[in-house]
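In this supplementary section we document a worked example of the pipeline. Step one takes a protein sequence of length 450 as its only input; no multiple sequence alignment statistics are reported here. Step two produces a three-dimensional model, which step three serialises into structure tokens for compact storage. The input and output of this example are shown verbatim.
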Amino acid sequence: MPLLPLFATAGAILALLFLVLKVRLPAFLSLILISIVFGLTVGMDPSAVIEAVRNGMGGTLGFVAVVVGLGAMMGALLEASGGVEAISNSLLKKFGPDRAPTALTLIGFLVSIPVFFDVALIILLPLLLGLSERTGKSIIAFAIPLTAGMVVTHSFVPPTPGPIAVAEILSADLGWIILFGIITGLPAAFIAGPMLASQLVKLRSLQNITPPDLTPADEIARPSNPAGFSEAMFIIIAPVTLILIATVTKAVSPDWIPPQAMSTIGFVGHPFTALLIACLLAWWLLGLRHGLPAENLREACARALEPAGLVVLVTGAGGAFKQILVDSGTGTLLAETLLANDMPLLLFGFLAAFIVRVSQGSATVAMITGAGLCAPVAELAGVTGPTLGLLVIAIASGASMTSHVNDSGFWLVSRYLGLSEAQTLKSWTVMTTIIGLVGFGMACLLSLVF
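The serialised model returned by step three reads:
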């Protein structure tokens, strides 16, 4: 068995980590550079390398750009209309102060589906501060449950960028990913959220924390006639429900549904259509209907597309790396090696993403790299349908693990909650590790059924 492609693959991953971690090159630039150098190293013709990068980038962006863009705008409309605040206030009122950690986990889980993690944390920070001041408890008691819910959906549930990128690289069905993301994510969020927080608050080193005042008033300003809880929840649930219906209907394919109706269900439940419907509904139901000027809504959507653009480009570069693996034949060789050694595919995806995550920090880059390595293996093994969805969850679990000082999320949480590095390691890092382990464990259990 030729060893050059295998050594080249390992060298490419190490080089990628070195460029991102030590040289501090942007992830997009590093992935494109490594893709080209790797292709030349394993003997591909230079023109074939360029063609593979173009095809991989274009093929990935064709799907990811639309879904991430629409998802970002949907989240922006929810934020601008006060929908996020409506969800938070309603759930806290329903659960009461004593069960606030449980409510916060649900809030984080729901809000982080359409809203980017850092934006959601900034929006909900006053909620955490108010609860901590009102109850006299450490902010850890409320911040860990909230961020646990946010981390889970950020990594496990589309239309957040990470699972969208992995789904496209692996050609996995978003419906299965949404279903499995919810099934695996909720236990992970509650174990790493309220259950962990109840133990962390007993540590003397995590008490008497005074968060800095870092939230400008204009960032949390809300319209005079904000959206209500039911309206905001409808906007979040609508596209998820449409996608799930299309996936289940396709999988079951009941004979009593006419072909034309099946085609219509598939069209309406396609992520493009489902998210477009959600954005249009949000524009009218949450915006214009509540008196928000169209100009304000356009500005909110435009701001949301700025961070989305970076995610889309990094995802496209990951697609280019995957295409190089496929076109060079290295992916097939890697797949044959793994299958010959009977290494479970879910474990391989989890470990690949975990190693990259711990080494360079970015969960998105870890997910994309893990997916690129797993794609040829999954194709050769004939993995399809639900199993591909579980592979996405396994990769997401590995990419969620052990956030530490090389992760921007680590410093975001530390800065906004007023935690020292040691306190953040004891709380945030432990929480993300538990999420990864529980998520992977749940994926393995589900693989026994599907």
